[in-house]
Amino acid sequence: TNVIVSFSVSGLDARGSGLELTVSIPGGPMIRQQGIAGTNRVVIDTFGMLSGEYLVNISATDGNAQAETQTRFAISTSGSDTGLEILNLHMSNDPFVPRKGESTAILYRLNTDAEVSIVISNSHKKLVWAGDYMPGINGGKEGQNAILWDGRRNRGSNIGEKVQPGIYYVSVIARSGGQTVSAVTSVVAVSH
Known about the structure:
55% strand, elongated, mainly beta
């Protein structure tokens, strides 16, 4: 599904190299393309975006001056048959240095409230951390979720100690309405 955002640009000099347009959605896609003085159209691919209202930031520059504006659009996926999805799983701080007190957040979006389990294992497939989250609260709510991990173990040997430098695999498992889906990413813990 696509949304077409139309807007008019005036007051900038479109001669020479023309106008450069930047259209962005906070936490979503950013599109750069050439524009003209007058009406411009930008197509935004909304695949994977959840129901809700989105703010669109629009910027146009002619190399000497810049104009900015904002608009909004809404997406409704009610009645959608896409099922349960975990979207945009990534780490906020990768690599990170747990031995220097750094943390990283496990970031992801759910398209509906779900029961969620997160497990972190080392490169030898040994469980080092796990957490469970109920539907409707951070970790299991529809929309953006952010779970902080300080690099400490809460499973296996040496509970409470910071993990050794290495690659760690983060698995997010979501369950809702008889469906179970999972997504995996990795994070690197470094020593300095």
